[in-house]
Design a protein that fits this description.
By secondary structure, this protein is α+β, with helices and mostly antiparallel strands. The chain is built from 9 helices and 22 strands. The protein is elongated and about 90 Å long.
Length: 517
Amino acid sequence: MTTVTPYRSGLRAGRDGFAQLLRAEWTKLRTIRGWMAGLTLTTLLIVLLGVLFATGSRSSCMNGPIEVPCPAPPTGPGGEAVEDRFYFVHQQLDGDGSITVRVNNLTGQLRKPDVTPGVRNVVPGVTPWAKAGVMIKQSVRQGASYAAVMVTGSHGVRMQHDFTEDVAGRPGGAPRWLRLTRTGETIVGEESADGARWTRVGTARMATGKVRVGLFAASPGDLTVTSNVIGGAATASRFAEVTADMDQVSVRGAASGGSWTRDDIGVTLEADGTPHHPGGLARSGDTFRITGVGDIAPALEGMPAERVLTGVLAGLVVVIVVAVSFVTAEYRRGLIHTTLLACPRRGRALAAKAVVILAAVFVFGLVAAAVTVPVGRALLAGNGNVLAPLAPLTGLRVIAGTAALLAVVAVFALALGSLFRRSAVAVIAAIVAIVVPYLLATASLLPDEVARWLLRLTPAAGFAIQQSTVTYEQMTARFAPAEGFFPLPPWAGFAVLCAYAALALALAALRLRRRDV
């Protein structure tokens, strides 16, 4: 009887040999020049197209007939760009105190598209976020900390502070009593229907010291969205102003002895120094009629960081081609049998490929984004463009998120390559699933709601990870994909892409278990 000693490899295995699989797949990737050249091309496309975009983007503003650099938007206490233009009638408050007022009504006028060319079409009305009420503000400097309780055109009573914070009170409009009370660093906002029974709306904190307390009015522009012939839309914001009649004014703790100061905060001036669309005050006894334009809210001014990443889409196509060929090349050349003989647990072989392509693409993408974002923003600023503020953590998320986007798309494409086993079919399927929905949604080719659903339900939702602009309910803007806004938060959109990649990988692993490789 012959005894056969089974073969035992001299290699020390990792956990089920997975470390050796990773090493083998990495060796395959790095030794094929075409694949490494593709990943290098991805980095170059992102960097060069981003630099080209930034170099060619120039901006300037006109001051009458004179071309001048565009001014940077004011920034709020949190460093965000803000709108801070309104008419303010105020007194000085040194310590604790309060202000109470009754807002009797809001009226106004809106500029609509001209019916007759050359004839201004101005109609009565107020915008949804037109606002008037009471405010405590650290100073009359634009962007200074504030807290306000207000009646709005269509959003009821609100308490807002420091531009980004917004709390809803009761629905409905004027007449309404409003009150702000300052005690130490705490400011309490209240409302009342009759001036006797008060309801707290919200609270805010503000450093102690001298502040301004008073009445205000502001109205953002009238936002008009018009559809075009192919289903997209265009946005225009036209002049609007609001007028509020207020009485029963009571100020406690003011240091100015009852005298009022007027400021048209943020008003723009014509070349001759004339205010452009000024606000105003008309006072009759205890009644204040205040007219204001502008807004007090976060702003969309400035070019966001992700605009310099215009080359990502081109790089994405190259990543898809490399990831697909990373698996289909083995089918095409018959090498898949060798791979599976070395690893009978077939799902692990596919997992090793996924980990290697994920890590490799992430590194190349991280280098590309880490170079493009700071260099591109520096070039944009040098060309006179106003940049949207970018918080450090947000900038880190944009850079790392771009790399993660590319890496997960690579895994998705790899899984499609394993499913279809033909390069052309897998590449086309990946592009149709990711690139096409993104282009359709962001190119003003579809109605806004259809575009939003595309970016909720397809893998293109992953592009949301690049959005650096934070949106707020109290902002007056069209938050559409064509304007760069995604319907899902950054990490939620990225999670949708990850789910698609995981599903595709699971299906590919199930098919790979079949023996008819």
